[in-house]
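hiii, so i know i said id send this last week but things got crazy w the move. better late than never?? heres the sequnce for the chain we talked about at the cafe, plus the structure i predicted for it. fair warning i was half asleep when i ran it
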Amino acid sequence: MSEILSTWGSSTAIILLCLLTIIIVVAVVLHIRKKKRFDVGKITMADIDQMSGHEFEDYLYVLFVALGYEETFLTKKSRDFGADLIFHDCSDIQTVVQAKRLTEKLGLDAVQEIYAAKAYYQADKAVIITSTNQVSDPCRKLAAATQVSIVDRDDLKEVISYFKRGRLSDAQSIIEMPFNEIAYNAVDSLDDILDHQRGMIKAGDYYYKLTVRTKRSS
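okay and structure toks below
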């Protein structure tokens, strides 16, 4: 009987030791992963894809300062008036940045918000940095009209690659690239809904008969 108990005790000890070893290994792996996640020098696009919007803003702040933009500031998480970062580029030009950690398409609202922020913070330039490659056509047109630069996923990949290789000036050149000039015609956005043949001004359910004005004036 004593031999059985002794064997059982040894087996239990071995099992507990194995469990303890597994727990330690898991803890070490999690610690390494956590350290890698927060070390900007080791961040990859795969890590960025797992970030929240606020985490992406914090990441970009650290990245910008590490790239040599010492005058970089985070805005408040609420009431940021459309800008997440403000920095002075290599030519000392004050620039507002909107960080968009997206999986879907970048839309018009991003341009509208950062353009408003540019006016609010009295900045000279405006940039959108996004983790997506999908940019809607209206977004690109409005960005061209408002002179807003867009750093998309491919651009961000290059910035990260240059940063990790110590090629800071190359990374800066992407961040500071001018806005993309594309052809657009603002007139295409106007809707001519006047019906002159019937002498009526009409929009939706609202109308005004031009003949009524004529009768009253006569």
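btw Residues 2-38 form the longest helix (37 residues). thought thatd interest u
miss u guys!!
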